[in-house]
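Standup notes
- DV: blocked on the single-chain target, sequence here:
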Amino acid sequence: MERTQLLSNNLAARIVKKGFPKMKRITMKLIHGLMISAMLAPSVGNAGGRVIEGRVTTVRDVDTIVVVGTPVRLNGLDGPEVSTRPGRDAALFMRRLVGGKVVTCELNGERTYDRWVGVCFLEGQDIAAIAVSQGHALDCARYSGGRYHKYETPAAKSKIRRAGYC
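- DV (later): unblocked, structure below
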């Protein structure tokens, strides 16, 4: 018997002993199935090296998208805030680029606020590089290692204020 099945059987048995002795068999099977699912689910606490693939359901701004329910902060991308005109334009650009489309994100295990940090690809192309090359964001060398610097446009450098932490 597998370790996860033994663990869930033991837990289910303890639940029954502690006050639910007349619980119906179907309810026990449901509890057992839920416990196994929880144990086998990918650990949210350990996203390092994790790859997620799925449809982009929400674009918060140019540097944050939601993929299959997982908020992802695009690593090394310095985007303007949505409270500014360039920020609203950049968010609209990103919505048009990836909204409703399937992307692949390589998460590095780091978190910032509620978001996992990673690099995302649309049809094999790095979407952060696309945003920078189209003048909607800048490179944040502190986190990208300068990966996007070569894509920065003169227009973006003049209209977007680089974040102090970059």
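- Follow-up: The two ends are 52 Å apart (CA to CA).
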